[in-house]
Amino acid sequence: VRGFANLEPRLSRSGKAIVVAPVAAVIAAVLVLSIAFLAIGRSPVEAVYYFFIAPFASVSNLGEVLLDMSPLLLIAQGLAIGFRARIWNIGAEGQLVIGAIAGSLLPIYLNSASSPLILPAMVVLGGVGGMSWAGIAAFLRAQLNTNEVLVTLMLNSVAYQILYFLVSGPLRDPHGFNFPQSVQFQDAATFPLLISGMRVNASIFIGLGVSVLAWLFVHRSFLGFKLRVCGAAPMAARYAGFSQTQAIWISLMIGGCAAGIAGVSEVAGPLGQLQRVLSPGYGYSAIVVAFLGALDPLGIVLSSFLMAVIYVGGDLAQTSAGVSYAMTTVLLGVLLVTYLATRLFVDYRIRFRWPEPRRGTVA
Amino acid sequence: MNATLLFVLSSTLVAATPLLIGALGELAVEKTGVLNLSIEGLMAIGAAIGFITTHDTGSHWLGLLTGGVAGLLLSLVFAGIILGFLANQVAAGIAVGILGLGLSAMVGRSYESQSIPAMAHWAIPGLSTLPVVGPALFAQSPPVYLAVLLAVGEALFFRFTRLGLVVRATGEAPNAAHALGYDVRLIRAGAIAFGGFLAGVAGAFISVAYTPLWADGMVAGRGWIVIALVVFGSWRVGRIVAGAYLFGAVGILELLFQAEGVQLPSQLLSSLPYVATIIALALLSMDRRRVRLNAPVSLGLTFWAGQ
Fold first, then answer.
1. Among B41, B91, B96, whose Cβ lies nearest the Cβ of A287?
2. What distance lies between CA B288 and its chain's CA centroid?
3. B209 min Cα distance to partner chain A (Å)
4. B80 interfaces chain A, CB cutoff of 8 Å
5. What are the residues facing B15 on neighbouring strands?
6. Do A161 and B87 count as a contact with CB atoms less than 8 A apart?
């Protein structure tokens, strides 16, 4: 080990750094935002207002925040369980799409059914759909040791092609003037609205309920403990007899199930039908959310809320100040890049080495 | 029929070029043991900056160059967080990819749906006058040929040069390379910068030569195909070249089938490259020995000299 400043692993994780990293990420995001606003001749104060204050300014804005938060929260909780076991499921976007398709089959084929059971059945179908799509990657990884990052990534693109095929053919609304979309779902097949006149619906409770379950699973269950050991110390896990195959299947099944249900909450929520565009990249943003929340169920509740605030802030800045929607995407990138960099100090610290005075030079 | 065949041949060459250029860059990165998932974003920023440069200066070459430099600069952010801050490569790749997509949409905003004159084609003397295939194969825009030369150069580099050997060693056994006195982080940073430059050039090729206009989102998932291509080609230059033309042809056939009214869902063709990659990946990893022969052993793992 040489050099002036060296990295040194900490003996125990720094509690301070766990909090400092996301705060640093938000500060970096605000800085970039201010510079971008200055560059187009606007005040940085305006930037902070649109992205961090306006989303709270009215009940309807706050409703939009909860609406965006719900799929991010749900998907990120599922992904984080896998990430903690070092199973990299990058395919939440595809699992969301397949889940949405599976859940949509009921209201499309039983469009007049008004049973109160139809919505729960859709949620179950969506979860199963997402799980089966993630199952392809789990099977290949468990049986053939195929890299799950690449497989889940490829399956995202395949899932979208399946969706495009179905909405422009078999599942298209026959009276829809050839638009690539399904029939409108009946009321019984959509989530009840929380406040009439606003789009936020009851699916946010699924996300919050799943968060509680995720907390219990991670911090209070033996299975959750085994998964964590598989990720943190694979050799120790093998020695203790914890099955890697089990870790792979459980991780991908939970991630797929959560993403599939999120897909249903989109089609049975703000969309109200199956269509070509199901998500503005929730599956990818949820990866950002999971990391920003330090892969911890409680942290993810906070980070998904923050992310949703930025999404809504971006929408508001676009409609009222004419700021490009791309600003939101840039902010997501800056947040995660800064977080990943500062995250280092949770496990490491920098030890500075001052050159020692040479013997003999001091009289 | 002849005209259709020629159209398919010549369009395949063009469609395959950005895939090939990007994949040759990503190959060098993965050979050092780094998985860079930000290619889509790097190509997008390359496409945006390349288009803006060509639009404002009129030079296609300058556009390709600045596009490459833009990709390089953004890839340094990736290099910084995974090498300097030891961040997880998957997460860092996603982050920088998102950043690139956002930045490209932002800088390209005032150029939306503008177009530029197409890049002048090079007629290869002697060959371009060949009957039938001459005009289709040997009168293309320059990067189409340069990509092939680049592939040959990269194959020779990995096979015959000392640096090529060091690069491969870094991916196969970073600890051993470090013990021998090679600077693993420097080699990885160099490869990432090279890969970033080529991803930027690949993006710029799309916006200044392939379809000379700017539309947000015009990279349209090619970055993911590039990553698929490296795996599909099992980390070998020759197979990657073959794969690039195969994937390029699939895209063109899709257009052709639509035009000819063939009753085959175009989505089936669109998903072919991805399905083929998954199958190739599964076949490759079935035999552990074969994986060892092909995939860089340390792919995706963080290296820290102090461990």
1. B91
2. 27
3. 25
4. yes
5. none
6. no
Q: Which residues of B touch A344 (CB under 8 A)?
A: 85-87
Q: Do A343 and B270 touch (CB under 8 A)?
A: no
Q: In whole angstroms, what separates CA B104 from the centre of its chain? A: 17
Write down how long chain B is. 307
Comparing alpha-carbon positions, the chain A residue that sits nearest to B103 is A330
B304 neighbourhood in chain A, CB within 8 Å: 7
Those residues with Cβ within 8 angstroms of residue B162's Cβ, 6 or more apart along the chain or in another chain:
none
Question: Are A288 and B97 within 8 A, CB to CB?
Answer: no
Mutant choice from A147, A167, A327 vs B, greatest count of B C-beta within 10 A? A147
Asked if B84 lies within 8 A of A154 by C-beta distance, the reply is no
Start-to-end CA distance of chain A, whole Å, equals 30
d(CA A169, nearest CA chain B) in Å: 9
Buried b (16+ CB within 10 A) or exposed e, A309-318: bbbbbbbbbb
DSSP classification of residue B110: G
B30 neighbourhood in chain A, CB within 8 Å = none
Looking up tokens 């890299």, which residue turns up? A147
Instruction: Give me A6's structure tokens.
Output: 């060296």
Beta bridge partners of A348: A9
Q: Is B125 exposed, middle or buried (0-12, 13-18, 19+ CB in 10 A)?
A: exposed
Kindly give the confidence (pLDDT) of every residue in chain A, 363 residues in length, as a single tens digit, with 9 standing for 90 and above: 455 677 788 878 777 777 888 888 999 999 988 998 888 888 889 888 999 899 999 999 999 999 999 999 999 999 999 999 999 999 999 999 999 999 999 999 999 888 999 999 999 999 999 999 999 999 999 998 888 988 998 999 999 999 999 998 889 988 888 888 999 999 999 999 988 888 888 889 999 999 999 999 999 999 999 888 888 888 888 888 888 899 999 999 999 999 999 999 999 999 999 999 999 889 989 998 999 898 999 999 999 999 999 999 999 998 888 888 888 899 989 999 999 988 888 888 887 776 666 665 544
CA A344 to chain centre: 21
Strand-pair partners of B115 = B213
Tokens encoding B126: 């002697």
Alpha carbon separation from A258 to A95, A193, A272 (Å, rounded): 9, 21, 19
Please give the full DSSP string across A241-296, using - where no structure is assigned.
Answer: T--HHHHHHHHHHHHHHHHHHHHHHHIIIII-S-BS---SSHHHHHHHHHHHTTT-
